[in-house]
């Protein structure tokens, strides 16, 4: 049986970038793609679970995160370049054989995009937290600016180069503690209100947690802080700065069908799914994903791999067995 101590770190050159990749197990490849603000480390328990189910679990730091090199410019974090990085990962670790692909948060977005651009590289797909939504008729940031108007919204805040990363680089522990919370984590009142006219950034609008959730150990927090002290926050935020460009590039696939088996897992209390139940999620995604399994974890929020690792691993392992 594999354990966390069996995870090794390697540094291959992938798509021209020096890349940190965590690895454990033997067998066919399960490729894990993390979200923001995370790194490979968020997958460690799932990696061990799939290693014990007969897979080689691979989890990179994505470009601009952790110890993987950043891309030269904001524009380089577009869907074509990131999907190319993922394609070379698959070619490096699983030449000629499609993989089990798993993504959370921005990793979910990257995986949705990758399976549309390179369906032949994905045997099965597991997505956590971010559903495949219908493609809008206007670019997403343009829509968000019109929807939120003078109200603060973090994805709009992220659009101005140099601003959000300066705030977070100055206080990485502050932003990470404020984000790594459960739905029921008590918070102090925010220092700033919802209006952008007040100025200020995002940390002051989140409210400092009154206590650390039990799943967030000091060891975990220290690992993430060290990762962001090394990489800075700019790389991860640059993915958000390509929302509109990615929308334009993917318009030809807006009605494409994802034919491989797909498992969607989310915390039922995750604000990303906006209270949607299984029926609503199936209505949202089912037309484009004929082979779709949905699992909602009661009372769990956005960081489900760490909030409820046993439940996630059980659902993940069951899907792997069913589809074997």
Description:
This protein is α/β, with parallel strands linked by helices. It contains 14 helices and ten strands. The strands form two sheets. An eight-stranded mixed β-sheet has the order 1-4-6-5-7-8-9-10, sandwiched between helices. Strands 2-3 form a two-stranded antiparallel sheet. Helix 1 (44-51) packs parallel to helix 14 (309-322), helix 6 (163-170) packs across helix 7 and helix 7 packs across helix 9 (218-231). The radius of gyration is 19 Å and the shape is globular. It starts with 7 loop residues before the first strand and ends with a helix.
Report the average pLDDT across residues.
97
- Give the overall shape: globular
Instruction: Please tally the helical runs, counting DSSP H or I stretches of 4 or more residues.
Output: 14
Q: Oligomeric status of the shown chains?
A: single chain
At the first level of CATH, the class of the largest domain is Alpha Beta
Overall number of domains: 2
Rounded to the nearest angstrom, the distance between the terminal CA atoms is 20 Å
Helix/strand/pairing category: alpha/beta
Tell how many strands the DSSP assignment holds: 10
- CATH homologous superfamily label of the largest domain: Alpha/Beta hydrolase fold, catalytic domain
Radius of gyration, in Å, reads 19 Å
The CATH architecture name of the largest domain reads 3-Layer(aba) Sandwich
Query: Which range best describes the helical content: under 10%, 10-25%, 25-40%, 40-55%, 55-70% or over 70%?
Result: 25-40%
Question: What would the CATH topology of the largest domain be?
Answer: Rossmann fold
